[in-house]
Amino acid sequence: MTRKVDKKIGLVLAAIGIVTFGVFLAIGFLIGHPIYLGILGLLLAFLATAIVFGRRAERAAFGQMEGQPGAAAAVLDNIGRGWTTTPAVAMNRNQDVVHRAVGKAGIVLVAEGNPNRVKSLLAAEKKKMNRIVADVPVHDLLVGTGEGQVELKKLRTTMLKLPRVLTGPQVTSTNDRLRALGDLMSNMPLPKGPMPKGMRMPRGGPNGR
Question: Bridge partners of 103?
C-alpha cells in the first residue's frame, strides 16, 4: 500500500539502513571496536528504518483516505485510550457527517463534508446535546484542507492537544448521558471506516427530513 503512494520507499529505507550502519562501523574502526559498534549500528539501522517506514506508511494511509466520506471516523477509532468515539451521530443525504468523541478535553464533534452544509449539522447536534450535557465543554473540528479546517493527518494530534478539563468519573458520566441520545450507527448498517462514495442517506432519514 505504501509503495503505491510512495514509489521511493524502498530506496529511502535502504539508504537509511546502510548509512546508519556504515557510520557506526566507521566509528568502530576509528576507536578500535568495529565488532561492538558494528552490532550496535546494525540494531540502530533496523530501528531507524522501522521508524521512517512507520511514518511514511502512516502518511500514505492518510493520503489514500483523504477526501473519502467517513475517513475521520477511521482516525478517531485509533485515537488511543481515554477517548470514546461514536461515528456518524449526524448525517445528511449529501454524505456530510458528524462524529463524536468524548474524553478529558470534553466533547469533540468532528465534521467532514461541505463547510456550509455541515454547520447546520453541528448546530443541531450541539442543541440536542445541550439538553443533557450543558455543563461539558464542546469543541467542533471540521476536517479538510481549507482555512480554519484540520487536515486529516493532523486530526489526532489536534485533539490530543486540547486542554483536559474533565476527570475520569466525569468522562464516564458524560458518556452515560450521551448514550440516551443514540446515534445513526445503532440504527443503520453503515460500514466502519471510510464509507462507500456511492452511499446516500434515504429520504426521510435523520437530518434529511
Answer: 106
The span from the CA of 178 to the CA of 196, in Å, is 27
Report whether 98 contacts 121 (CB < 8 A). Answer: yes
pLDDT digits (tens, 9 = 90+) for 109-120: 999 888 888 888
pLDDT digits (tens, 9 = 90+) for 1-19: 667 666 777 888 889 899 9
Give the cell for residue 114.
461541505
Q: Which long-range contacts (CB under 8 A, 24 or more apart) does 195-201 make?
A: 195/68, 195/69, 195/70, 195/95, 195/97, 197/68, 197/69, 199/69, 199/95, 200/93, 200/95, 201/91, 201/92, 201/93, 201/95
| pTM over 0.70, yes/no | no
